Amino acid sequence: MTSASRVVATALLALAGAAGAEEIKPGSAFLSPQMQRQQEDEARNPGWLWVEQGEELFSRRDGVAPTCASCHADPKRSLRGAAARYPQVDAAGGKLINLEGRIEQCRVERQKQPAFGYESQELLGLTAYVASLSQGVPLSVSTEGAAKPYYEAGKSFYERRQGQLNLACTQCHDGLVGQKLRGDTISYGIGTGFPAYRLEWNGLGSLHRRLRACSLGVRATQFDYGSDEYLALELYLAVRARGLPVEAPGLRR
Ligand code: HEC
Ligand code: HEC
């Protein structure tokens, strides 16, 4: 706990001196040079194994149901850029959904198959595959109209102190950027590298899994995968990251 209280003290100092609008950099910019190179190398970034599985699943026939590919022909072209526009408000349901949510929706409503489930290997693979098709495309989520209240909720979540350590996201991911914490270098806390392969997980994980880890880190409530709270937060993080390219699948410690 001593290191935690030191973090709090430093966060307050840093916030007091924060001058506002800083240039937000992707999470990969805070990796060691070796890990940066490994992330970029498809042969050495294990996240690409999930991308390959997702690509295979995309065209796999499951009984009489149409495959993803039956409706999304030439996905390299037709789905390029899609991931950069999520989360977004679903025109039909009026609710905020992320890329995982859109894929599950296609699975259930259009393929008429049982949902894969958040954090299942199938959904992770498909999400990583679809996200990889947008590599290099700058994030361009909307906060207009029906998305606005979600954006506001995400922003206030990001700024609210929480948990036993009474820390807000902003205290670490704005106030302490570049500092070391448990062997990591604190980044701007955005989601452009997710789903990401994390060495600590020994596998691929969603952005919501990473958010749950940060909530646990400050001893705050861990919200469910796909919860409204994390969806709103995801939208706010995507707004912070506007203009930065999709990098999924990322590689993390
Ligand atoms: C006590 C400091 C601390 C707090 C508070 C905190 N985080 Fe983190 N967070 C970290 C550390 C350390 C990492 C791993 C290194 C990194 O990527 O920043 C991390 C990683 C992340 C990442 C992954 C970034 C990447 O590219 O891999 C995201 C996203 C994130 N945090 C979002 C949040 C959000 C949203 C909150 C508020 C709910 C939050 N964090 C609260 C310390 C914190
Ligand atoms: C029967 C046809 C059909 C099937 C099968 C189908 N989809 Fe879709 N998909 C659609 C339609 C139509 C939309 C547009 C929905 C909208 O924008 O409201 C869509 C939207 C999407 C989007 C969002 C595109 C964007 O630009 O926002 C993604 C990603 C996606 N589907 C992935 C998948 C995956 C992965 C599968 C297989 C698990 C799948 N779809 C199966 C018809 C289908």
Give a structural overview.
- There is one protein chain.
- The chain is mainly alpha-helical.
- The protein has two domains: 2-15 and 23-41 and 140-252, Cytochrome Bc1 Complex, Chain D, domain 2 (Orthogonal Bundle); 47-132, Cytochrome Bc1 Complex, Chain D, domain 2 (Orthogonal Bundle).
- Helices cover 43% and strands 7% of the residues.
- The protein contains eleven helices and seven strands.
- The chain has helices spanning 2-17, 33-40, 47-59, 68-71, 75-78, 99-110, 121-132, 148-159, 169-173, 207-217, 228-240; strands at residues 88-89, 96-97, 180-181, 184-185, 196-198, 203-205, 250-252.
- The strands form three sheets. Strands 6-5-7 form a three-stranded mixed sheet.
- Strand 3 (180-181) and strand 4 (184-185) form a beta hairpin.
- Helix 3 crosses helix 7 (121-132), helix 6 packs across helix 7 and helix 8 (148-159) packs across helix 11.
- The chain starts with a helix and ends with a strand.
- Bound molecules: heme C (2 copies).
- One heme C is lined by residues 58, 66, 68, 70-72, 79, 82, 85, 91, 102-103, 106-107, 110-111, 126, 130.
